[in-house]
Design goal:
Blueprint (H helix, E strand, L loop, with lengths): L1 E5 L3 H14 L3 E5 L2 H10 L4 E5 L1 E2 L2 E2 L13 E5 L4 H8 L4 E5 L4 H24 L2 E5 L5 E5 L5 E5 L2 E5 L4 E4 L3 H4 L7 E5 L2 E4 L3 E5 L4 E4 L2 E4 L5 H7 L1
Parallel strand pairs: 1-2, 1-3, 3-6, 6-7
Antiparallel strand pairs: 4-5, 8-9, 10-11, 10-14, 11-12, 13-14, 15-16, 16-17
């Protein structure tokens, strides 16, 4: 886990580092200006942010106003103001702590926000669907959470669910962008939903997926290892 820490005060930099290193298993990226924070966020996405409300005489709220920045944010300040509270509450993924605070207060606030974010991501992911054309030319929306695996068969992709399967005239690589993080390529002919994995046998190079043996391709072995 990576936490972006925006703090210019050396004493609070040390305090926050000590708290995070003692109570969390995380990599800390420390920046002291809003420009440094902006530069980091332009190429990286942290798991969470702890940001002083004021840096360089500017407020840090605007940096995180972009709705695409959904990671948890804990704003901290030593000079509380009603407007600070209102601005932090205007962001659904943010909270505000007033210095000085106990280590437990920060850790509790951070964990609460992280858990809320995970629940939100899970809800969004579980509602995603894959569009296919049914036997009668009707459009079907298949919930991704119900898809067990997808197999390439000639010019077609066969999508397997519990008791049904659907055939679509598409290459596997064109389907991948429409899937979520639950899925991964394990063979040139197979994409699987790792949520249905029962067992992985690296010796015999197969995955037991809901009772079905799926082969592991040599070039995809590392992908499998990273997911188990």
């Amino acid at each position: 886990m990576t936490i972006l820490l925006l703090e210019a005060d050396p004493i609070w930099q040390l305090k926050l580092r000590m708290i995070l290193e003692e109570f969390t298993d995380t990599a800390i990226v420390l920046v002291t200006t809003l420009q440094e924070a902006s530069d980091f966020l332009n190429h990286s996405t942290p798991d969470a942010v702890i940001a002083n409300v004021e840096l360089d005489g500017l407020l840090s709220f605007q940096l995180f106003a972009d709705v695409s920045r959904t990671y948890p944010i804990i704003f901290i300040t030593g000079q509380p103001d009603d407007s600070h509270l209102r601005q932090s509450l205007s962001l659904s993924n943010a909270g505000l702590l007033v210095k000085p605070f106990h280590a437990y207060t920060l850790v509790s606030a951070l964990e609460t926000r992280l858990n809320q974010n995970k629940a939100s991501v899970f809800k969004n992911e579980s509602s995603k669907t894959l569009s296919v054309i049914g036997k009668h030319r009707q459009t079907l929306q298949l919930p991704l959470s119900k898809i067990i695996y997808i197999e390439a068969e000639g010019n077609y992709a066969i999508i397997y669910q519990d008791n049904t399967k659907h055939s679509v005239k598409r290459a596997l690589h064109t389907i991948v962008p429409e899937l979520d993080m639950s899925f991964g390529r394990v063979h040139k002919s197979f994409i699987i939903n790792f949520g249905f994995v029962n067992r992985v046998n690296l010796t015999e190079k197969y995955i037991n997926l809901n009772g079905q043996k799926i082969p592991i391709g040599r070039k995809y072995r590392q992908e499998v290892l990273s997911r188990i």
